[in-house]
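Example (one chain per record):
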Amino acid sequence: MRCRPVSSRNCCKLSTMRKPRAPLVVLQGKGRCFSAGFDMSDVQAQSEGDLVLRFIRIEMLLNRIASSPCFTVALAHGRNFGAGVDLIAACNLRVAAPGSTFRMPGLKFGLVLGSARFARIVGTREAQRILEMATTFDVERASANGFIELIASPEEHADVIAAAIERVNALPAGSRALLRCALDTEQADTDLAAFVRSAAPPGIYKRIEAISHRKRRRRRHRHELWIRQQGEAGLARGTGGVVSNGASVGLGGSFLHRGPFAFVREMIRQEKRGIEIVKQSPGYDIDIFCRAGVASRARCGIVAMEGNFGLAPYYRRAVEKGALALEEHACATLTAGLRAVAFGVPFMPCGGVHGSDLMRVNGWKYLDDPYGSGQQTYVIPAISPDFAVIHASCVDRLGNVPIAGTYHWDRIMSRAAKSVLVVAEEVSDENFADQPELTVVPYFMVQNYAIVKNGAWPGSCWPAYAIDYPAVEAHQHG
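Predicted structure:
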């Protein structure tokens, strides 16, 4: 979801908010985040006047939403930036998924877009602390300061919307309008005037370009910093420390092969709770998560320890005792759900599942062939983990991730997740840009990475080391 120039068609749609047909409006983004903010992709093709006009129209859009008689709900997720955060602030009910973050860098450009409204929500002191440093704040801080009223995963959105409908219907429309008018703190004209004054000085394009240049430099520096922070300390801060309680985590690898097991143990060390695991073929990873009480939900295909070890015992006990809520999949159905997100559609067809009770248990639907063959195809709803965590044999200094041997489901997992974290054995000095086809996850998709030697132990990481079967057996009987 991005803020784009307001066309005449958009203006017509916005004007209907003055006399809404529906008293409830829900704003929800697709992809990796609710909104990445202002679209910078074509700023070089515009004059400064056109650029300022775009910003002014965004401020007017925010004012329209904030002053609308509709009850507005923002369902945020992922890393939200700039005008996207302002859009959340303009809504009556602000909801965010676990792991969400927020950043408002407008003052770095000299712009006060949405600043006053943000201050009215969180208080002047808190707004100053966040805005003057363009601080990225997480969902826990947002909940504490009142910016986010409710932390809810996407699976809980239906309940959130139902509660919002009940809230809207609690009063007659006339009474609701009177209450809104009595409590209204919006200062649309004042906010717009302040924004126009901030945008009026010449040179806004140069200011944006200067900030973008510094951002690119910081990104390169950050990657170098993670290289220096090798080992468990880098793992704690760079990957495990990013994941909040209640997050949905997709784990790379398969069974005992190239799983991010150092990351899994770090999550256990940090005593994370309420984690959802998404993986087609987990084993050791989900088993020790269940043993430690970290995981409370799972979407999995086959779960086994591989080799001669059979089933995952702690996982089985957790499911039997109700400590782990399981949405059971076939590997193909879970992959279909991930592909739906990667391809930008709400569901994905999946063959080969007719006759399975998975369809009935999970409530999955089927569609008739629209081309008249008479066949029916089951469709799997989209699945988007908050994080994909992948273990790789190496990364380069920018964060490009090649994978030696098969990459299992890591590619599609990285495309479906809202954020990607990587644990690698080492940093390579090769220039992967010379052979881009070898890169499974490009650097711009990677939020953080950490270097941990033998990070897939007791599993394998080809070609560096094989499975440590005695260590796996010790876990089974521990």
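Caption: Residues 8-211 form a domain with the 2-enoyl-CoA Hydratase; Chain A, domain 1 fold (CATH 3.90.226.10).
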